Amino acid sequence: MGFPWQRRGTVKVLPNHLEILTMPWCRQARLLHVKGAGVLRWEGCGERASNDGWTTGLSCLTLRGTPLLSRDDPGCPTCESMLSTGWGLDAVDCPELEAVRDTLNGGFARLDDAIPALAPLLGLLERGLYVLADGEAYPADGGGRFFWDVPDGLTAAPATAQVQLLDDDYEYEYPNSAPVFLYPSQRRFRLDEKRVEYYMERFQQDGPPPRGVALHVAEGLSILLDGHHKAAAAARLGRTLPCLTILPAVYHYETAQIPGYPPVPTPTAARFGPFFIRVRDLPGAYPNKYLPQKPFHVVKGPQRQLPEGRLADREWTAEYRAAGAGYPTMREYAVVSAAKLPGYPTDSDLAHWLAEPARYRPWLRAALVLLRRSGGPRLKNLALCCAGLPYQRSSLVEESFRILAEMHGDPDVENFFVKYFIDLETLPQDRPLGLDTLTEIAHSFWN
Questions:
Q1: How far is 152 from 94, CA to CA, in rounded Å?
Q2: pLDDT for the residue 96
Q3: How far is CA 447 from the centre of its chain?
Q4: Sequence-distant (≥ 6) Cβ neighbours of residue 11 within 8 angstroms
Q5: Comparing C-alpha atoms, which of 245, 314, 240, 300 is closest to residue 88?
Q6: Is the CB of residue 111 less than 8 Å from the CB of residue 28?
Q7: How far apart are CA 162 and CA 295, in angstroms?
Q8: pLDDT tens across 345-399, in order?
Q9: Helix (H, G, I), strand (E, B) or coil at 367
Q10: Of 291, 244, 225, whose CA–CA distance to 14 is shortest?
Q11: In sequence order, what are the beta bridge partners of 71?
Q12: Residue percentage of the chain with pLDDT more than 70
C-alpha cells in the first residue's frame, strides 16, 4: 500500500502567467492545481463577541487534527488578527515533511524541477488552486521580533493586516502585502546551535541555497512548516531566508441572477496573497474542474475554545532578539513597497530626491527604511538632511528625528539637536503643528 502522495496527478502545473516583475521578493512562481487529502486545513471554531460590539471569527490551522496555529480574525483587511501558537509539528506524525526535506536542503535552480519532489507536502492540502512562490522571507514576525519569539497566548500580529499609509507623505496608499514575514510551528527547545552553524556555512557557499517552506496565513505572514534552523541561521547572518511559500486561493464572488433560476454565486477572480488572477484568465471555462463550486470557507465546527499554544518553552538569547529587531516591520515594508523603488538607493538618487523633498517624500521615507538596516554615514547624512527641512507637520521629518535620536554620542547629531533647541527660542509663540513631538524626540537623544 503506497502513501497518498504517490497517486498520479496529485499536483498539476497550470499554464498561467503570474506577474512577478513588480514583486522584488519573488524569483519564480507557479500556478498549481492540487488534488490533496485535506489534512492540512483551517477549521472553524465559532465566533467571539468583542468588547466594541464586533464579532470576530475563530479558526485553527490543523494538520491531521493537531493545531499548528490559532487565529481570532476581525474580518477587516486593515485590522490585525490575534494569533497564538499551536502544539508544534513534533506533536503530529508527518512523514511528508521528511520526504521533501532533501529537496529543500539540497537547493535547486528551477522551481519546475522541484515541484514533483514537493508533491508529498502539497498533497496534504485541500483540493484546489494554489500559487507556489520561490522568494525571500524575513526571519521576523513583522512587529520587530525574531520570528520564533512569539508568545503562546493570543497576541496581535501586525503582519496579518493590510497597511494603510494615510499620513501626510501619502494619499491613501494601500501597498500590496508580500508574504515575507514568518510564524513558527516548532517548539523552541528543538533549536540546535550546531545545526544553525551548519546552515550559516551553507548560506555563505556558492550554489543554490537551502530553502524553508511556508504556508501563507494572511497578508504578509506565513507559517513556517520546515526551515526553523535555516531561518535562525539567516537571522544570525542578518540576511533573508530563501523560502518556498504556498499561497491558497481566496475567491471573489458575484451573484448572477438568471430569470427563472435561483441566484448563483459565481467566482470572478482568485487572489493568492499579492497575486491576482481573473477567472476568465484561468485554464478552461467556468464551471470546470479547477474552480470551486461554492465560496471559500473554513471547515465549520462547533463553538469551542481555541487550544493553548505550547511552543514557548525556552527564552531566546539577546543575540536572537537583536537579530529580529534588525528586520523591517510590516509598516516599514509597506513604506518601501509604496515607493516602488527600482533598486537600492544610490547617492545620485538621494541627491535627486533631496533637491525636491516635497515631491519625493515617499522615496526619501523608503530610503530611510532601507539604509537603517545597514546604518553607517549614508543613513546619518540622509537623516540630517531630512530632519533639517523646514519645521512643519511632516512624517518624514519626524522619522528622521527618531533615527538621529538613536545615535547617542554622535557629535554631528548632538550639534544638530543643540541648534534645533536654539532655533526654537527664536520661533513665534504660535509654533507650527508637530514641534512638540519633535522636541520630545530631540530630548530623548540625551536620555
A1: 22
A2: 93
A3: 33
A4: 32, 33, 34, 35, 115, 116, 118, 119, 122, 123
A5: 314
A6: yes
A7: 22
A8: 999 999 999 999 888 999 999 999 999 877 789 999 999 999 998 756 688 999 9
A9: helix
A10: 291
A11: 59, 83
A12: 89
The pLDDT value recorded for residue 254 is 74
pLDDT in tens, 253-274: 777 666 776 777 777 888 999 9
Classify residue 75 by its DSSP letter. Answer: S
**59 three-state secondary structure:** strand
Non-local CB neighbours of 384 within 8 Å, separated by 6+ positions: 400, 404, 412, 413, 416
CA–CA distance, 330 with 142 (Å, rounded to integer):
5
What is the rounded (10 degree) CA torsion for 335, 340, 345, 350? -80
CA angle, residues 155, 158, 160, in degrees to nearest 5: 95
Determine whether 130 is exposed, middle or buried from the number of CB atoms within 10 Å of its CB (0-12, 13-18, 19+).
buried
* Preceding peptide of 287 cis, ω within 30°: yes
Q: Give CA 253 to chain center in angstroms.
A: 26
Angle at alpha carbon of residue 133, lines to 222 and 365, rounded to 5°: 70
How much of the chain is in helix, strand and coil states, percent to nearest 5? Answer: 35, 25, 40
Give the DSSP H or E segment for 14. strand 11-14
CA dist 138 to 115, 181, 323, Å?
23, 5, 11
Spatial contact of 227 and 185, defined as CB atoms under 8 Å apart = no
Q: And the C-alpha cell for 141? A: 514576525
Of 421, 387, 432, the closest CA to residue 406 belongs to 387
Cα 324 to Cα 144: distance, rounded to the nearest angstrom = 6
The residues, ordered by sequence, that sit 6+ positions from 356 with a Cβ below 8 Å of its Cβ are none
